[in-house]
Amino acid sequence: MRILLVGAGGVGDAIAKVAARRDFYELFVVSDFDIARANQTIQWIRDRHGEEVGARFLSAKIDASVAANVTEMIREFDITHVVNAVEPRFVPTIFSGTFTAGANYVDMAMSLSEPHETDPFHQTGIKLGDAQFAVGEQWERAGKLALVGAGVEPGLSNIFARYAADNLFSEVEEFGVRDGANLVVRDEAGNEIFAPSFSIWTTIEECLNAPVLFEKKKGWFTTEPFSEPEIFEFPEGIGAVECVNVEHEEVLMLPRTLDCNRVSFKYGLGSEFIGVLQTLHKLGLDRTKATRVRSAQGPVDVSPRDVVAAVLPDPAKIGPYMTGKTCAGVLVTGKDLDGRDRATYLYHALDNQFAVEEFDSQCVVLQTAYVPVCALELIAKGVWNGEGVLGPEAFDARPFLELLSSSTGYGQKWFAQERLPAAPLRHP
Questions:
Q1: N or C, where is the chain less crowded by C-beta within 10 Å?
Q2: Is 325 exposed, middle or buried (0-12, 13-18, 19+ CB in 10 A)?
Q3: What digits encode the pLDDT tens for the residues 2-27?
Q4: pTM, whole model, 2 decimals?
């Protein structure tokens, strides 16, 4: 296996560092528009693991906005698998450039949605991933695999859902993805600051778009941003966190493969974060279309959202200033194998202190990075096989979870925590 990683930001950097501890690939090319970031990642690997491991890693400059550039790089290095670790606005070019070159593909965030023209808060328009699933037959005919939505969310929750459907439940009422954290970021003076732990560009896209829900009787439909708040009790000392509906890929992915009556995604954003996002929207700072701005050097065209991303702390660099844990999982409700009511929260939690000490990464990006690397290893060993455009839920979950948690694998424990099936939601 010869891997091309596109993007050496927070997630890409963590992917390379996780992969450096494994030996299932022949070559790992770390590429970025800013080649200095790619070189920095590789230097860290060499310093930590030595020249023998570092020799498997090469750096390259890439423009992910140009499909032909992606295709050329795949052919230059005889790449077999491309890992897309940049913002989802680059999915179309990387996805198509990979297909043209005849390589396989992995991403952690799918093609972007577009709202319904007249009724955006009730009906779906173009959904997340529609553009990729639409060409699934082309990938299948080509004998290539596009493994989409293979991060932590989406990704690990999809795998948990598949595991629960195959091993714990006879019928599923709802797959309710619930993510939360108790992370705090402080500046050098110890003052708590606003610093998103993931790309603000992607966060704005997810949180301000109309959330999508799925119900078997209705199909996919939308609702208002930040709707249906509930208090969810997270494990690992995180505690009760208010969660709200957010647009996310799991809702669009799971019903394609798994039988259930409902799928939802709720994220523990917190009132301050929601307030900031709402303010950005009111000021038009969430827009992606370039706006003409006067500067000392003359007029320039800039995207307001890019400006917001530029002035906030880099998510890849806040690890040393962050404390707490992040938790990703899915609450599955329905009937157990004996037909009794059951509710089980399958989850993985990660402490930021571990992430910084072991990988010099912050915990949110590291948690995301484990999944594509673990999936690639299963593909390299022939354990996971497939053609077409598929999500992780299309594959047997058991070997993935065994490799993820074993001491000879990735050493990341996951848990299935039983909940009271009839426990009512607590609304604030």
A1: C
A2: buried
A3: 999 999 999 999 999 999 999 999 99
A4: 0.91
